[in-house]
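Lesson 9: reading folded outputs for more than one chain in a single document. The general rule is that every protein is listed as its sequence immediately followed by its structure tokens, and records are never interleaved. Here is the first one.
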Amino acid sequence: MTVAVPFPAAPPPGYEWLADEPTFDPDRHLALGPPPATRTLAEFGYDEADIEPTATPIAVSDPFRVLSDEGAAVLLDTTRRLRAYARRAGNRIEQSVRGGCYRSRFLRDLCLSSEVSDMMSAIYGVPVAPHTMPLHLGHLNYEPSDLSEAVDKWHHDTIPLDYVMIVSDPTTLPGGRFEYFVGTRHEVAELAARGERPPADRVVAPDFPGPGYAIALHGNMVVHRGAPLTEPAERITMVNAYVAMDRSRDDQSRTRDLIGIDDDATLYAEWARHAAWRAEGRLAALVDEIGPGIGPDEAAARLEAAVEDVRRAIDDMRAGQREAEHYELGNAQS
């Protein structure tokens, strides 16, 4: 099993495990098939300069099945129980649950599943592992109370690699489709600055055959949203995040956006561990790569690059809270 940072042995203070949960069993609860077809960032209009620093050139996959019928039923029951902990996630989502893997052992073990991680590695074409920050594991989004609101606004994610799974039955939903824009986030920022949304002829709404199906996403590069419902209905999705094991590529994270959304005591500890893990890998590579004859400027530059994620984390932690980025009218960000 590929592990970046081990999951904590005990939940943080204030979190308690759900009682009477079924134990996650991959033989019973998973129904993985072959890797799905994918589209690349180049097909979305990104150039080589945009793609080269990223973890993978893959942009998005077709829907693929993750859960068996039994697994989908258990996850639906689990997410309904976790709804009691839902709260607004900044300026984007009215009802979401983060830190669910500290409350549900079933959700935790699903999100840490080596079988699913292997599938994600096959899709992305690079080795990945469950995200080093457990707050990014099993993120749950629920339908809004106001039908005029999108379930989630047009945005790109705070993390690079994830899947979006439909937990409630998508075949019965009145609207609320998951949608993504076939284009770059720079294009969407320009559209939003002009008071425009992504044009319908460049928006894709994947067809999810049923609950427990997901799509893999290069989440911080592909602009996407949960469209509004047209009638009141239960709509639940689950997002599970991953990290590329190759730490030489850019981090592609905006953890500062989570200040004020996640619990401080949990967020800063996880954030620090993530930055340390990134730097550890880069520094270890530097030990192996640096040889005699290197000059002061190059040595300093290599060290700066190795600890870049630590420096950014320190600066962002000290800078404090800001509104999460999205591309709704009047909030164009790139």
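And here is the second record, again sequence then tokens.
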Amino acid sequence: MKIAGLDLSITSSGVVVEEVDNKFNIQNLERHGFTTVKKNAILPGLVFYSYKDYNNIYQRYSFLEDTILEWCKDCDYIAVEAFALSRGKSGKVFDLAEFEGYIKQMLFREGKKLRFYPPNQNKKLFSDYGNADKIRMKNTLLEMNEKKSYGNILLDISDLPPVKDGKKGAAPTSDIIDAFSLCESLRLELKLKFGIENLNNQPKYIQEVFITKTDEHPLGLIASDFIYK
């Protein structure tokens, strides 16, 4: 089975695809992202594009969308960060909503099982802090890699542009880290839903995310089905 996490944006989406066994252990991991810096195009998983190659935003969006959908074509379950009104640069929030909406709709039509995690839920599951910034997300990944807490197949970001202290993030590194965090949230949810892991054995902060009742999940995330056709 393949699962994916998508951190979507109109400039530098990140996608992580994990191939897992029947106990949801990672057997293979792929990272994907976009770059407008030509020298970075040689890095594994990165696709280069230039704004000047497109006559309008819809040509560019079509290229980005088609590429993302191709990366996800063999995936069974896909996690995407739920859209938040505060996201996006000034004046671009509706462009982002259109972009994300198209990808979600196409994934739905293709029969993928979808989960949309609000940013604070995903960040809390990954880093134990719902308001984690890009630095904390990066540090969490590095700590997980050092401990091999999710297995021996690791997400290597050592060749990507560094996410430095004092900055919000670095494209495409932060986008790939966020995509990985979504994929890991999804993998944990699947382990719980399929009985591989027991929620009662999870840390308190993880239990809180899965049992908290919201308008979208009135019985809590743990009792909510995936979105599928």
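What the second record shows: The chain has one domain: 2-223.
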